[in-house]
TrEMBL record:
Keywords: Metal-binding, Signal. Belongs to the bacterial solute-binding protein ModA family. It comes from Paeniclostridium hominis. InterPro entries: ModA, ModA/WtpA. PROSITE patterns: PROKAR_LIPOPROTEIN. NCBIfam families: modA. This is Molybdate ABC transporter substrate-binding protein. Pfam families: SBP_bac_11 (PF13531).
Amino acid sequence: MYRKLLSLFIILSIGMIVLGCEKHEKTKINVSVAVSLKNPFQEIEKLYEQENKDIDLVLNFGSSGSLKQQIVQGAPCNIFISASKKYMDELKKDNYLIDNKYNEFTKNRLVLASSTKDIKSIDDLKNNEYKKIGIGDLKSVPVGQYANEVIINKGIKNDIENKLVYGKDAKEVLAWVVSGNVDAGFLYSSDTINKKNLHIYNIANDLHSPIVYPVGIIKSENNLDQIKKFNKYLLSNDVKDILKNYGYES
């Protein structure tokens, strides 16, 4: 009799532990984010998880083109934030987005930056003192694509093509600029916030396409209510204030 009661007690205890674990299991939301948004998004993640204890935001940072390709190949992703409408439009065209639509998340500006030279004009890049110029990979990195538009529109492509050094994403180009491994680099304005000793030249907006970051919900069968709730939070004034502190524009 004693053994039966002990066995029953053990079984009930194990059941309660299992139920307890299930009760506290968090809902995962996979978010693929353009790497240029890494700093503000880590703050957004922290604040949202503090206010929503049942949510675990799983962030995946990378170049927008690479992230889009991962989604197409079946990588887990519930929300995608790109640094270019190009990749979101491609997903929309191929019917990857909930309701076949997306929203504008934030905006940015393009700059030329150097840790060694005082840039007065984009035409300065033609000078012999500029031997290496950092730019994002043209196939998958939006900041490189915007920069390429500037180079073409200014008519200096042939003059500087041999000087261009291509980075895998915006953060790699930033690291080159800060370290002086390139004489100048095309960056987002937000990348230069709180970076001391950088010479910044602001590029006119009419030299390139508008730098818009769209956010879209990728089709999924699970946790759609929680995913939509987080997407709504991303469009809130609280998040806009965070982004503004990091140099982004509404």
